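Reviewer 2 asked us to include a model.

Predict the structure of this chain.
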Amino acid sequence: MIDYRLKVGILGATGAVGQKLVALLAGHPWLEATAVAASQRSTGRAYGDVVHWLEMAPLPAEIAALPVVAAEPPLECDLVISALDTDAAREIEPAFAGAGYPVFSNASAHRMRPDVPLLVPEVNAEHLRLVERQPFAPGFIVTNPNCSTVGLVLALKPLADAFGLDAVQVTTMQAVSGAGYPGVAALDIVGNVLPHIPGEEAKLESEPRKILGALAGAGIAEHPVTISAQANRVPVLDGHLLSASVRLSRPADIEAVRAAFASFTSPLAGLGLPSAPARPLVLLATPEVPQPRRHAALGDGMVVHVGCVRACPVLGVRFVALVHNTIRGAAGAAILNAELAIRQGFVTPRVAAPAGREATLAAKTW
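Predicted model (structure tokens):
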């Protein structure tokens, strides 16, 4: 058990993902938000006065009262979670890491660096060791992948383990919350589908190869699977739906594929990570599911649901996967990565600790 709470600084705290981080950290047993950082136009004012709060739960009063500070070190916290946009993250995140902060990032700026973990803990927890190779000491950067990539790799992992993967074709139907706030104009999306999302297809085609790859001397030896992706924005609030066809390396009938999905269990079991679902992948049996409105928020939004598993006349196997894009695909993913790093001893207190806190940490067997 972790018997203290580490202090978290949220970078980009006024944006949609930053707000989701605030909401998810409220009452978290290991972590507490103690610093909110944003652009200069917000600094010096109370967070509650500058944020356009989008969450269903009320903004916690103690967070509303926090002053917004600049997204630059130093911050009074033990670690930072970044919801910065890519351009800002490119310089700000290394600055925090170089100042000694563990950085857990939602941004794409550093995901494909060979020395930065692109982490989905149930898939590639061992990649966390890459932080030992980074030039940012005494801090480091850990990233989570694109919000659709998380759903894809969690669905592909049991197939890769059981049968191997040769090729994947995936078409996404992505919720409007993935575009942030104010996001997509209503006249563009209401009653409509936008058949292109800039940058999404390239991420879906490259990130899974790194995540499913293996640690090697130069970083990660990428998985050789070929991926073709098409991304669409649809008028759904939360939940990215992925329709995938897969060519396996070794032939398997559909019942064997369903069994692989159904039997996939979390390698994190026993670690006691607060955000880790007992079953990160859930197979649904009836043919009309998963559906964003019915399933995206199940399992506190941290579970990927798979359904419509059937034969594909082109590649062999096809299925549909659903991921909650702002929780499992963004804020919740970064928090889970931080929990794993804490449990494995990569994060230690930086700021003044309550009595006995450092002693407790030093005595911990990770």
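Residues 353-366 have pLDDT under 50 and may be disordered. Residues 32 and 76 are 12 Å apart (CA to CA). We have added this to the supplementary material.
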